[in-house]
Each structure stands twice: as C-alpha cells, then as structure tokens.
Amino acid sequence: MVESGSKCSVNAQAGGDGSSPEIERIDVSTYRIPTDGPESDGTLEWRATTLVLARVMADGKVGLGLGYADRATALLAGDSLAPLLIGGDALSPALHRATMLRSVRNLGRPGIAAMAISTLDNALWDLKARLLGIPLHTLFGAIRAEVPVYGSGGFTSYDTARLERQLADWVEAGIPRVKMKVGRDPRADVERVRAARAAIGDAELFVDANGAYDRKQALEMAACFHDCGVSWFEEPVSSDDLEGLRQLRDRAPSGIEITAGEYGYHPDYFRRLLQAGAVDVMQADATRCGGLSGLFGVAALSEAHHVPLSTHCAPAQHLHAGCALGGIRHLEYFHDHVRIEAMLFDGLGELRDGALHADASRPGNGLVVREADARRYEI
User: Fold this and answer.
1) Closest Cα partner for 137 from 330, 285, 322, 287?
2) What pairing do the DSSP bridges indicate for beta strands 177-181 and 204-208?
C-alpha cells in the first residue's frame, strides 16, 4: 500500500484463470471544496463540503464511487477495506459488500464504516457496468431514462433576496418543486416560507428542519407551513424520534407529507422507520446506506410497506439507480453537490423538463474525472 496525504492506493498483480477480471488496484481520494458562501440549516453550519472518491480498477477500466463524507471515511476505505477486495472478482459487487460488512463488526457499522463501504460499493457497481460496456442503468434493468428532481438549497444563512432568487431560478429552469431549510430561527421561518411561496408561484414547496424542532413546535409549524402551501416537511423532529415522526404524520394537516431516512446506515433503521409508520416518503442516501446495493434494499423494504422513495443528495451517484427503481418519486438536486459535480466531472446527466436524463451512450455511470480541476481541492 502507498499512502500520500489522504489518498490511499492498493495494488496487486492480476491473476486467476481468466474467467473473470480481477480487481487490480484501488485508490481512494479526498477533496474539500469551499461553498460559494456561508451555509447553514436548522442544526448545522458549514463553509466547505468533502467529497470522497473511490477508483476501483480492473482490466483497463476504472469504476468511480462517490461519497460525501469525511477524510476519516477515505482512510478506512483505503487502508482497511480496499485490501480485502484486491484480487477478487470484479464482476461480483455483492460478494465484496458482504466481505466489507463482516470486516467492520468490531468497528460498528453505522457512520464512518457504512460510508466507507458505500463509497466502494458504488465504485464496484460502476466498474462492473464499464467492464460489460453498458450504462449502469442498463445493468440495473432500467424502466425509465430519466428521474424527476427537486431543487434543494434555500439555506438558513441566505438572506431573503438570495433565497427567493435561488428557488425562482430552479422553477424558471423547469424544476416544478423546490426545498428550503428551516429551523434555525423558528420566529423567522414562517416569513421566509411566505417569501419563498411568493417567489415560486404555484410550484411545489418543501421544507427541511433537519430535526431542529421539538414535537409541539413542529406541529405548530406544520399548520403555519400548510397555510403557505407546503407539501413536504422533512425531519420536523429528530430522525431518531420515530414516535415523534409518527405523531407529526398523524396530526399534521392533510396535504403535508412527513419524510426522513437520510441518516439511515443499515437496513434495521429503515425497517424500524417503516414499521413505526413514521414517514409518508422514505429518503435514502447511497453514500451512507451501504451503497447502491443498500439503496436497492431500502427500495424493496419501502415498496413492501407501500411507501415511495426519494434519494438524498448526490444526484450524480443516484441517477442510474433511480432509472431502475419502480417506487422512486424523485432525486434531490442539492445545490452544493450539483455545483461540485459540475466542477469535477464530465458526463453528468442532463437536466431537462424537471428531470435528470441519464446518458445511454456512456458505460457505467458515465462520469469522467476532470483530474486537473480535482487536484486543486485534494487534501
């Protein structure tokens, strides 16, 4: 193994009987990209976003896996998990996921370990599609060529003018649904939501509190938001408060959907969320829930409970899977990640008529790293 900064590389000589390509090398790199201004939501503030990028190589092809995590995620993926995959069958992502899951038993699966596994799992699926010379959505069995999106941003750090401009720009670009952050200052939230409604006309309006409210406060805010035509209330209370989410779902005004799930790292969490009747729409993130393998598991659980699915952030990572998921409602077109993906990658899906369209002419997820641009942000 060779380590330079936070970039971890694992190499091995290819071998075997030639029946299937073997994984020859894995690189895991970390990039820290400043935001285009101070950003905050109901419970957190930040000025930069960290991208973890896994490159898994076999037979001259490179699979790319994205993760929005922390440098510690890259170190675990590169130092501890990658060596377990070297020399293995490059066409067997499920086998390697099982190996990685066993290996983190004593570390604890939620959090950093799950994100490290997710990033590598995402790369393994991309590699398989590239080795087969087909788009990733074709490998998954596409049922559509595009997935609807909603514009997501509206940070609590924005003044009213910037909030209105960002949301209105998405609507003018053809996105018929947009989301804003609330919860930083409950006294100001209603006025901000009213301003957003005036800016976007009849478009759908979503709000995300990131768990900032308590139960009674959230119920009161739901009534106020309903008066502004809000149809989606994300994490009105902590996503760990399943009883509170269920209470909000039962008592919020008709027409407001309660949503959560982005902090799910393993199937048990999603099962509990569904069994509690806590959400109208399930959210899942392939950079956290065990990669694309885990995302399809969440989709199956949600379908069994007749709950639609929406993916969280990382639109470039979710697009191809979304084309193959029958129960998906939309992808989150999150401002920070859209900006980063446009800065560092070619081959992104095309935004058209309120949906991201997958490029069927490119193998795998279609992404190509703009190496010179990415190097500027590597840590």
Assistant:
1) 322
2) parallel
CATH 3.30.390.10 range(s) for the chain read 2-133
Question: CATH 3.20.20.120 in the chain, residues?
Answer: 138-375
- Per-residue pLDDT 10s for the chain (379 aa) are 333 334 665 554 434 455 799 999 999 999 999 999 999 999 999 999 999 999 999 999 999 999 999 999 999 999 999 999 999 999 999 999 999 999 999 999 999 999 999 999 999 999 999 999 999 999 999 999 999 999 999 999 999 999 999 999 999 999 999 999 999 999 999 999 999 999 999 999 999 999 999 999 999 999 999 999 999 999 999 999 999 999 999 999 999 999 999 999 999 999 999 999 999 999 999 999 999 999 999 999 999 999 999 999 999 999 999 999 999 999 999 999 999 999 999 999 999 999 999 999 999 999 999 999 999 999 9
Extended strands (E) in the chain: 2-4, 7-11, 25-40, 45-58, 61-68, 146-152, 177-181, 204-208, 230-234, 257-260, 281-284, 309-311, 328-334, 345-346, 350-352, 355-357, 368-369
Q: What is the largest CA-CA distance in the chain?
A: 67
Evaluate whether the domain defined by 138-375 bears CATH number 1.10.340.30. no
Written in H, E and C, the secondary structure of 274-322 is HHCCCCCEEEECCCCCCHHHHHHHHHHHHHHCCCCEEECCCHHHHHHHH
Residue linked to tokens 């993130």 = 285
The tokens describing 28, both together, are: 């895991």
SS3 43: coil
Domain 2-133 matching CATH 3.30.390.10: the answer reads: yes
Instruction: Please give the single-letter amino acid code of residue 256.
Output: I
Q: N- to C-terminal Cα distance for the chain? A: 18
